[in-house]
Amino acid sequence: MDVTKVFGKTLVSSPERKQEADSDMAIVRVVQAGDVAAFDQLILKYRERVFGIIYNMTANREDASDLTQDSFIKAFQSINRFGGQSSFFTWLYRIAINSTLSHLRKHRLRSFFSLETIDEDAPVSRELIAALTDKSGADRDAFVHELKEKLNEAMQKLSIKHRTVVTLFEIDGLSHQEIAEVMECSVGTVRSRLHYAKQLLQSELQPYMRK
Amino acid sequence: MKSNEHNRPVTLEDLLRLKRAEKPSSTFWTRFESELRAKQLAAIVEKNPWWRRLLGEVVPRHRFSLSATAILAVTVFVVRSNDLAPPESPPAKAMALATSLGASVDRLGAVLREQSSAFSDDLTVESGFAAFSAGSIAASAADPEAREPAAVLLAKEETSHGISRSEAWSADDELEPSALSPRAQTIANNLAVVKEAHPELSDRFFAASGFDLMGVMPSRQVIDPLSQMRSPSDINRELALASARFVASTKLARNSERVARRISDERLTEEAIRRFGARGNELSVKF
User: How far, in Å, CA of A44 to CA of B89, rounded?
Assistant: First the structure.
């Protein structure tokens, strides 16, 4: 059974994803019929996820914002060519990742990182931060800031392809199969890249892990 | 409970989950939406063509040479278009005038045809106004293929009938009836009749043109082309006289030139000395 983790939950992939893909496809058909405003529903649905992927790949908020917008514009412009061979979100992710890879190749040497605020109201992050430190107040904030910087640095040390696989699997929660579809490579390649990337990240983030 | 949280193991997946919790603020999404909306509108309204992208890359680099080339091209184009333009090409005003005249003349022609039973010289009127028929004028003005402009057409009609429009229309105001050609007189008479019968129509006719023909087209003296024609005998006589004059003048000139060439100044002086002799009381002259 194909299992996909999405935002900390474990979801059975097939029925929910299929239902999601069907509803997306219905909206796409409406847009293709000429109702341009219907595309807004797709933007609202996917903008945070697309932004999240691109932000974790570029580590720059402004670049991520521009690339997310460009991805939606590209999808909008070529939506008439989308025939439904894959699900809409796979197609949209492919556009976003290809745009990001192209951007990263062009600006390989640029490294202006910007940090987003961690949503500490989310139970996952609250528990984790509590597990990592027993400090409070300014010390705690400084620790969280340092941890975010270290995470970014460690991610940027990965190659573009390894970073993409880690982002899609660990942060966005796609399955190996979905990542393979998005990146247009085999599932084996995805697994091997993920394994290598995790090894590298573990060595980089060893001081923050506790057994 | 709290101590359990503090003692739980922290894995790499846990750390990466922190990245999942990194989210931008709501103000960011507001700005994002407005920017995306602008880009989306631009994408709908205008698709960027390839040549614009090319211009965007090439123009900033070669702007001086391109501007110089553009100026040169415009200059060449203007000079060439001035050279190629036909001298009698009609101005737009004349074209508009011709079109409006065509419509007005049509209406006037219809009125004249109604009045034709009252006038014996109907045929002259028909020929006079049919020449300015709206069909030909409007068609030539409207049809781009018919390159002969309406103004030229009107000029042709004018010359073929030996009258000018201004003369015909202003005949009763400005010119003596004796100064007009017979046809012009006929048309002027007809116009006068129409003016009397339908003054408002004739006023509208001249007003509809939107152009003061009387003011713009200067009236000139009419010369009947028939009176200007010469008979063949006159032409022959003139030719013979001209050739005789030419031959005579050239012969005289040639003779004097030859004599002048043959006798130089010194020789003339020498001969004069030899011919005149003086001895004692005698004076001799040799011939």
Answer: 63
